[in-house]
Amino acid sequence: MCTGVPSLSRISDPMETPSAMASSWNYLPFEFLFCLLLLLQSSVVSSASPSQDSKSASRNFGSEHGAAAHEVHCSRERSRAASKIIAEYLTPFLEKERYQLSENCRLHHENNLYRDQEEHKMHVDLNEWKCGYCGKRFYEEKYLDMHFDNRHYEMLNVSHVKCFADLCGALHCDAMMDFKPQKSKCNPAAAARNKHLCESLADNCFPGNQGPTAIRLHEFFLRQFCDAHTCKGGRKPFSRGRRKRRSVFYLVISILVLMLLPVLYLFIYLYQRGIRRGSQELRRISRTTQKKKPS
């Protein structure tokens, strides 16, 4: 509050002399302006402080949100194992039947969280891995995975894609990852849970109303993956085997072999023909020498 402003009671005091009253009215405009400036300053400070608090709060929220965004609870290693199993033990049979998985099927490659990053991996040499996004090179694959997590996190489609690692129980990822079998007893509850997940994948990806091809593949999937989820011995995963897809290298080698086979046969033919001619010439020479001998 402004204490220097004269009060009304003092100004209206009838006992006060006219000179004192004149001096009081002379100081009144200056004190009034001073108080008005103090009020304006306090109002500006009070209005600015909430905006600063909101900015600091938004920065804290942004940093916390950015830190939480990198927390993806999905194993990259197990997702890679599940993707490899699908590529080697299921996809070749789908291609043979010319069957396309629906995107609603959890086995579809578009539902792999790390699909885009895995496609941008380049295995240049035995101890050399290259990032397909920025071109950086690494000695081991795990360092490239760490690079993806730190530098190319935005390439993960975390909006609606599910984790392939969640399918490992049904697809026997431990067998693909070369884990040593534990000597502990089989857990019937875990086996039943994995078998139920496996059968639900078969029902979802190969529904019976899609025709005879889907029915055949449904039966194949049950034999290939689901039958091994039991505590009874004698049943192993991937019982139907795998079909390796023909690579470009294989095709090139086959073409070269087919081209070199006629050359090889021609060489063998000429070699055998030369041997026959040589033996015939030797016979002629021996006969002529025998005829020229004196009697």
Describe this structure in words.
- It is a single chain.
- This protein has 295 residues and is mostly helical.
- Helix content is 61%, strand content 4%.
- It has helices spanning 8-11, 18-69, 76-89, 91-97, 115-119, 141-151, 168-171, 173-176, 188-205, 212-226, 248-292, and strands spanning 121-125, 128-131, 137-138.
- A three-stranded antiparallel β-sheet has the order 1-2-3.
- A hairpin with a 2-residue loop joins β1 (121-125) and β2 (128-131).
- α9 runs antiparallel to α10.
- It is elongated and about 155 Å long.
- One of its GO terms (molecular function) is zinc ion binding.
- Residues 129-152 form the C2H2-type domain.
Question: Mind sketching the topology for me?
Answer:
Blueprint: H1 8-11, H2 18-69, H3 76-89, H4 91-97, H5 115-119, E1 121-125, E2 128-131, E3 137-138, H6 141-151, H7 168-171, H8 173-176, H9 188-205, H10 212-226, H11 248-292
Antiparallel strand pairs: 1-2, 2-3
What would the keywords be for this entry?
mainly alpha, three-stranded antiparallel sheet, 11 helices, Znf_C2H2_type
Apparent shape: elongated
Individual helix count: 11
Report the strand count.
3
Question: Gap between N and C termini, in Å?
Answer: 160 Å
Runs in which pLDDT lies below 50 for 5 or more consecutive residues are 4-25, 44-69
Mean residue pLDDT? 77
Helix content: 55-70%
As a percent range, the share of strand residues is under 5%
Biggest pleated-sheet summary: 3 strands, antiparallel
User: How do the SSEs run, as a string of H and E?
Assistant: HHHHHEEEHHHHHH
Main structural class: mainly alpha
Major sheet strand order: 1-2-3
Give the radius of gyration: 44 Å
